[in-house]
Amino acid sequence: MKPSLSRRGFLKSGGALVISFSLAHDAFGQAKPAPLPGSLNNNRMLDSWLRIDADGTVTVFTGKIELGQGIGTALAQIAADELDVDLKRIRIVYGDTALTPNEGQTAGSQSVEQSGTAVRFACAEARDILVNAAAAKLGVAAIAVTVKDGTCVTADGKSAAYWDLVGDAKLKREARASVKPKPASEHKWVGRSILRRDIPKKMTGGAAYVQDVRLPGMVFGRVVRPPSPGAQLAAFDEAAVKRMPGVIAVVRDGNFLGVAARREEQAINARLALKRSAKWTETESLPPSGDGLYEHLMTKAKSIDSVVDEKTSATAPPAAKTLNATYTRPFQVHGSIGPSCAVAQWREGKLTVWTHSQGVYPLRGDLAKVFATDPANVHCIHAEGAGCYGHNGADDVALDAALVARATGGRPVKLQWMRDDEFQWEPYGSAMVVKLSGGLDAQGKVISWTHEVWSHPHNNRPGAAGGVNLLASWHLAKPSKAPFPVDPPQPAGGADRNSIPLYDFPNQKVVKHFLPEMPLRTSALRTLGAYANVFALESFIDELALAAGADPVEFRLRHLKDPRARAVIEAAAQRAGWQPNAKGDGARGRGFAFAKYKNLACYVAVVADVEVDRASGKVRVTRAVSAVDAGQIVNPDGVVNQIEGGIIQSASWTLMESVGYDRTRVSTRSWADYPIIHFEDVPQVEVVLLDHPEDRFHGVGEGSQGPAAAAIANAIANATGKRLRALPFAPERVKQALA
Amino acid sequence: MADYSLRLNGATRKVSSVAPDTPLLYVLRNDLELNGPKFGCGLAQCGACTVLIDGKSVRSCSVPVSAAAEGAITTLEGLGTIEKLHPLQRAFIEEQACQCGYCSNGMIMAAKALLDGNPRPSEVEIKQALNGHLCRCASHNRIVRAVQRAAKEMA
Question: What is the ipTM of this complex?
Fold first, then answer.
């Protein structure tokens, strides 16, 4: 992969319609501007979103990044439709602190919603400006112009193409969002399963990832992490490692230890030698493991308690029957197949980093804090990494590379974590406890509901105020402070995401116990708290349905008014051939679950079929059927791909995954310690899409994981009559439950 | 340190001053600037670094260059190019058989070894052949469909 052009070089390249780039809205002395749709609101200049070049191409600038979710393809589809140009003309520039808008993090399944909405309105407005410029040039009214693949044509055959209008059309102005985007009926590209543009190079060995960035004079770096959280470096044999073949620099700063070498395997060998020679003072800083963890979270961990939601009814009768249940989820990893990687280079006090961070601007800010420099001296450029399911080591490794690159005399350093670095030090998805209580009236309706959730933070990304969220910064001789964790507030929520039932219950109370201290570091893993909350909530709904003698699907519908929620539930049940009140046969069973992600994004219902081997305790999901309402769909196959992947990944989390540790160290180091789902255990997945072209975009990347987990739990209960409430449903645990 | 002549993708490529125990992966990626084989675990657990040596699927993170030099090496780049795709590459694109694509190299190379020995594998045989390859984005079903599609095209 060749390095990107510099901003100046980029802007110089070719006769561009946009000759200078306006990143910031200049609002000096002005009243607060009117809100604009999507990310346009914070990046208000039209030319920060698109550029039209004399060579017949359109460049769309997004602050989001490609992480295999197909955002580049979806944005190109949206832009091509609004501009009336062929898809092939669209080029996408992803997160780059010198080139693109600042759209914060690529997270929360919000890329199409935020960036797509901005691109849609910006392109609609740009088309209007271009058509007016063409009309003026051709001496006709704008209404007399039609656009075919970027060429404005009049009835009598006169024409002017966008690319001929350089200098005539002014995109360097604030967006007004006054031009209405096209109705779905006029879309040529949106709504079609266009093949993703990032895939061909990935299948042929093209330079596709940050791991493929190669710069002149580049050397290779590795880090040596402490053996446990809080460990202090007492001694190591620097001289011996410096004598090893190829070693250029050994970097020690407090408890940070890194190495650079000419060749990658030399850096790996030097890392191993450093590791062996280093003496650390360790402390027992970790919580109990196993069941003791959950007791600890509920009773010992420091907690900030809040009532998230409460409603009471004066008229509801007292409960005829009350159920209580507690559900747990362990620490789990992102586990990207490729360990985190970055390339960093220092030149004259300025730092350039190629990174697969989900947010190039927030990363830039945190790097600038660590190096006590102006953010303008740090340039972060997106390059894709291996699968990203939230806040993994991408940001941390960028700092590691930058720290090691300070010692290489201006030579760029490519630094990739080893597998054990990733397993031991990536931020985990938090362990959680969810305690539920529900009351049924005599007619089998839920009349009271309480949901209590205990959780560490789910959002400790760079960019937070009051500190630095980069691992190595806390290990330096002059350490940075970690910002005090903040849980994303409702309505999206963090620890409490999806804790408020979508069902209509007359009395309900939701309480959050936010545990800000993290002996094991946690942050955003796909869905944040929604995976555990939906697992618990939708398991408990089935427990209440059973107690009410009701069919689980009918029981859900009994409590739901939202017509779109009902529609996905009915669609999933129908496609799966749901038989009301069907009982499992001891080994095989079927379960249902549903959620509206964040209570404000996509609706997903899942039916799971399982087979339980009672002798070994092994559970296999044989088939999953899902119905999805994601609002307006840009790329149907992209949505299906996200849902399929979400369900299968969730099956892996739910059946197999938990981080191992003792009171001092994390013991999970390799895939042997942390098995994930293999081909032979992967279920068939069928997805039904309910399209709502009249609606806005809803993200789907995180919609299916919670429902999939609960559907599996409900299927096991249906099969065996045993309710499992502690994740994961690993063979030993299942065997014990069935004994 | 030693020099090697590698038989790689039908050509001979020389690499110089490499320690004999250097894993083949780093020689391919860094000396020869290939992107196909990926570093995933360095422990032969995940399959991202898979290449073929004399037609057999091997984990290049765990094969010393000195041993690899004795065989004929095929990497993803040796199968086809964007302009002239191998049926497996075409099938992976048509089936959109990835999200991030980091594991795809290993999947395609293992499938190549499978199809070379068994041109019409059953679904079960495909899953068996790929079972030691990890995919975290969970594109497994699409990958199986892609291998089936390629097998049909190649038949």
Answer: 0.98
